[in-house]
Amino acid sequence: MNVPAQLRYTKEHEWVAVDGNVATVGITDWAQGELGDIVFVELPTVGDSVEQMGTFGTIEAVKSVSELFSPLAGTIAEINGALDDDPMVINRDPYGEGWMIKIEISDPSQLEQLLDSDGYKSLLETV
Questions:
Q1: Residue 28 pLDDT exceeds 90
Q2: For residue range 101-111, what is the model confidence (pLDDT) as tens digits?
Q3: How many domains does the chain have?
Q4: In what order do the strands lie in the sheet with 55-61?
Q5: What pLDDT is stored for residue 63 in this prediction?
Q6: pTM
């Protein structure tokens, strides 16, 4: 299982990559594997506000529908429109082309509340 060291993680299995004041968010390799074939993703609208650990959408797989949680508070700066046509890109490339949203971060100190890769690997040992 792939857990890139440069990312931060939530206990709900989202990942975050930060570039300046913008955070790119997706679900982890473990999460996509547990969900199975992803058939639909509902994402927010650019300009929407999100709260840390508030829901920002849903992801639907063949066997379940799950909520998506925002790792950080801020404003939606961009969504991955490619997921409308091919949501299974999340299964193929969860840390790359399968990203979901970009957030303009309102409180960078919230990053400290997220797990680093070692913390996320330890979490996975308990599930």
A1: yes
A2: 999 999 999 99
A3: 1
A4: 38-42, 55-61, 65-69
A5: 84
A6: 0.96
Residues 41, 122, 16, 11: is their CA dihedral positive or negative? positive
Cβ neighbour number for residue 80 with a 10 Å cutoff: 20
Residue with tokens 């509340």: 113
81: in domain? yes
**What is the pLDDT at residue 66?**
96
Query: 38 - beta bridge partners?
Result: 61
3-state secondary structure the chain: CCCCCCCEECCCCEEEEEECCEEEEEECHHHHHHHCCEEEEECCCCCCEECCCCEEEEEEECCCEEEEECCCCEEEEEECCHHHHCCCHHHHCCCCCCCCEEEEECCHHHHHHCECHHHHHHHHCCC
Domain that includes residue 70, residue range: 8-109
Quick one: what percent of the chain has pLDDT higher than 90?
Answer: 97
